[in-house]
């Protein structure tokens, strides 16, 4: 029989769980909320299960469901909330890299979209689309020039198709637009209407 040992070390006010497969279970499968509370000096935080909604919550206070800041549904959908009630309290999600020497083409942050459990496999389970922030050059005390790249896939891992450069220029099909809005590839842009289309062609076409 595998044994799990729980030790309470009073001198350090800590709990150690050891063994070959250590685990900690909170609750007895009954219909009640369960929680782990962090009792702070000025503010308490909790991690808890809202049994009525089957949601996992992280929030302020010591009561499950009170001012939740992050919640996960049973299916895995996540909700973030800034619980500040005053003006100018938006929800901010910051993606940070731990790199200490950012160079050209380094990806600083990325959001990717994927369906890895798609049964047909192959192309279907590749990253389908993504948005990433890419350094345009070495970052320094006077520069953090960065582009946003919008990536999509057709029968491939998602690749960059549209770019917003650090100077505000936008490129579709080109990663180096020379004007405010640049189109690469076949050099054709069409504005489609319900009955007529206005099409602009590259002057060299």
Question: What characteristics describe this protein?
Answer:
5-stranded antiparallel β-sheet; mainly beta
Q: Could you walk me through the main structural features you see in this protein, from its secondary elements to its overall organization?
A:
This protein has a 6-stranded mixed β-sheet with strand order 8-9-10-11-12-13, with no helix packed on it. Strands 3-4-5-6-7 form a 5-stranded antiparallel β-sheet, with no helix packed on it. It has a two-stranded antiparallel sheet with strand order 1-2. With 205 residues, the chain is mainly β. It has no helices and 15 strands. It has strands at residues 5-9, 14-18, 34-38, 45-50, 55-60, 68-72, 78-80, 107-114, 127-135, 146-152, 159-164, 170-172, 181-183, 188-192, 197-201.
Assess the beta-strand content as a share of residues: 35-45%
E-strand count? 15
Terminal Cα span: 78 Å
Overall pLDDT metric: 89
């Amino acid at each position: 029989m595998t044994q799990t040992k729980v030790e309470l070390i009073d001198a350090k006010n800590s709990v150690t769980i050891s063994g070959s497969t250590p685990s900690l279970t909170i609750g007895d499968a009954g219909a009640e909320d369960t929680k782990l509370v962090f009792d702070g000096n000025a503010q308490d935080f909790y991690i808890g299960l809202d049994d009525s909604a089957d949601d996992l919550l992280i929030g302020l206070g010591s009561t499950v469901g009170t001012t939740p800041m992050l919640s996960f549904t049973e299916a895995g959908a996540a909700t973030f909330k800034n619980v500040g009630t005053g003006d100018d309290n938006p929800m901010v999600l910051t993606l940070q890299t731990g790199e200490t020497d950012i160079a050209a083409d380094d990806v600083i942050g990325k959001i990717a979209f994927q369906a890895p459990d798609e049964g047909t496999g192959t192309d279907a389970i590749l990253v389908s689309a993504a948005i990433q922030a890419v350094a345009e050059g070495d970052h320094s005390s006077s520069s953090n020039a960065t582009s946003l790249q919008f990536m999509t896939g057709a029968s491939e891992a998602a690749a960059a198709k549209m770019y917003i450069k650090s100077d505000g220029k936008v490129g579709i099909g080109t990663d180096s637009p020379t004007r405010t809005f640049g189109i690469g590839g076949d050099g054709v842009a069409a504005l489609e209407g319900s009955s007529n289309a206005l099409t602009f062609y590259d002057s060299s076409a």
